From TrEMBL:
<protein>
    <submittedName>
        <fullName>Pimeloyl-ACP methyl ester carboxylesterase</fullName>
    </submittedName>
</protein>
<dbReference type="Pfam" id="PF00561">
    <property type="entry name" value="Abhydrolase_1"/>
</dbReference>
<dbReference type="InterPro" id="IPR029058">
    <property type="entry name" value="AB_hydrolase_fold"/>
</dbReference>
<feature type="domain" description="AB hydrolase-1">
    <location>
        <begin position="57"/>
        <end position="155"/>
    </location>
</feature>
<dbReference type="GO" id="GO:0003824">
    <property type="term" value="F:catalytic activity"/>
</dbReference>
<dbReference type="GO" id="GO:0016020">
    <property type="term" value="C:membrane"/>
</dbReference>
<dbReference type="InterPro" id="IPR050266">
    <property type="entry name" value="AB_hydrolase_sf"/>
</dbReference>
<dbReference type="InterPro" id="IPR000639">
    <property type="entry name" value="Epox_hydrolase-like"/>
</dbReference>
<dbReference type="InterPro" id="IPR006311">
    <property type="entry name" value="TAT_signal"/>
</dbReference>
<dbReference type="InterPro" id="IPR000073">
    <property type="entry name" value="AB_hydrolase_1"/>
</dbReference>
Length: 299
């Protein structure tokens, strides 16, 4: 490894390190962040990759997913930005925490700790999908000193009363049934008709391999309970507190019209995207990559 011509990229280094949990991994660009205590909340050891140079961008995946969901965006993003892509707690290769550890605040604490531990003094553009977008928005409200802007790709925000009823039923179904069947049934209603069947099979197999308590406990607090910010007026009040640039891409034109007045920053925008399901970045890979990078570059 000392040969002058041998250069290891962060991604190659990740391959050598595997799931190493040494605290030294922080700062090498890959590995896992050592857990820490934030506001008396135990944070998880997160697997993440760190590739590229330029403005700091962090990609946050959705519920029952992992950072592989960004694979079609990573080549362009990593050529323009420093891209940090973690797996959230209980997902992918990150630490599985015990039951009772999957509120939105728990997820936010993990990302806050990661930034403070490994990227002190840097401000990120957070790009989140689904649950990841709500986590990004919550962190932006809590710690605007750490966040430069937020991109929400069909994020768990701004849903109406009909969606609230569906999400309430899903929460009950998850508690009573097998997440390995409940989640694919929910996803079937949000796929685009042209979705590659390989993706739907991937999503089903992935959730069937996850600990059931992670799946069950992570969903409900996004949309139900006194602290939810995903539906109806509670979501509107929350979004009005987002002072930094916010770019929301969603599938529902009515939702887009409803949400546009909520964001005060002149660089914020809300768009309805047709020809796509919930995974907009998979159904319209190149379009999403081009739109998001153009918006980030114009900040």
């Amino acid at each position: 490894m000392a040969d002058e011509g041998l250069e290891l990229s962060r991604r190659k280094l990740l391959g050598l390190m595997g799931a190493t949990t040494a605290a030294a991994a922080i700062g090498t660009g890959t590995g896992t962040a050592a857990p820490a205590v934030a506001h008396e909340r135990r944070t998880a050891r997160l697997f993440f990759t760190d590739v590229g140079s330029g403005p700091d961008v962090m990609l946050l995946h959705g519920w029952t997913c992992d950072s592989h969901d960004w694979s079609w965006q990573l080549p362009v993003f990593e050529s323009k930005y420093r891209v940090v892509a973690p797996d959230l707690r209980g997902h992918g290769r990150s630490e599985v925490m015990p039951p009772g550890s999957y509120t939105p605040a728990d997820y936010v604490a993990d990302i806050e700790t990661l930034i403070l531990a490994a990227y002190q003094g840097r401000k990120f553009v957070l790009v989140g999908h689904s649950m990841g977008a709500q986590i990004a928005a919550r962190l932006a409200v809590k710690r605007p000193d750490l966040i430069r802007a937020v991109v929400s790709i069909d994020g768990a925000l701004g849903f109406d009363a009909a969606a609230a009823r569906l999400f309430g039923k899903t929460t009950r179904d998850l508690a009573a049934g097998d997440p390995g069947t409940v989640v694919p049934a929910l996803f079937a209603g949000v796929y685009d008709r042209g979705m590659d069947p390989a993706f739907t099979r991937w999503h089903t197999r992935r959730v069937q391999g996850m600990p059931k308590h992670v799946v069950r406990e992570s969903f409900g607090p996004l949309f139900t309970g006194p602290d939810q910010v995903g539906v109806e007026e509670a979501s509107a009040r929350f979004c009005r507190h987002l002072s930094m640039p916010f770019y929301h891409l969603c599938r529902d034109p009515a939702q887009a019209r409803r949400m546009r007045p909520w964001f005060s920053n002149p660089k914020s925008k809300v768009e309805a995207w047709t020809g796509a399901g919930h995974w907009i970045m998979l159904d319209r890979k190149d379009d999403v990559t081009a739109a998001v990078t153009a918006w980030i570059d114009a900040l």
